[in-house]
Predict the structure.
Amino acid sequence: EPEVTQTPSHQVTQMGQEVILRCVPISNHLYFYWYRQILGQKVEFLVSFYNNEISEKSEIFDDQFSVERPDGSNFTLKIRSTKLEDSAMYFCASSEAPGQHREGYFGPGTRLTVT
Amino acid sequence: AQKITQTQPGMFVQEKEAVTLDCTYDTSDPSYGLFWYKQPSSGEMIFLIYQGSYDQQNATEGRYSLNFQKARKSANLVISASQLGDSAMYFCAMSAISSGSARQLTFGSGTQLTVLP
């Protein structure tokens, strides 16, 4: 059964450092998403990506964030200069078509801890 | 803009009993999907059930059913015959399907379900 994978599962970094979170979406999917969940809170949308460009982004997704699809399989989220409040679980998701999140193609998440 | 409201921060249910988790939504999109996810303490998001706004029948998946009342804009999750393993956080979410609309998932704040032995 196809699945979205994410690496690393847990990353600890110091404030001010850059981090790159990696995701491998399902191979025939065209739409990719990043979500964030601060501990104990709800899941929040960060950004969606289609056809090699950002299609939607939330106000959380400010200039310190960027996304990239460097090759045909990976989808990355970069945080340029991490802050303590960036500590959260980051989920990658993909879908075949826009809005078609049926069967919930979420990755297992990367827990980012900023110290 | 879309909004999901889950008014029950915590719920308790006795093992083998049924439980209903409430979810109301608001959207101006004519076509949308409603989702329920389970998040155990390990953190992953597990898809449970989906309801399309134009689906004529309420969705069911095993012990999960979705009580969809479009006029009331509610999409409650019913878990029958609760098991101890059902203890988790449950999130209601929606996404637009209409063209030109934002397609990402919008989540509610979640309901922490505890199943008592």
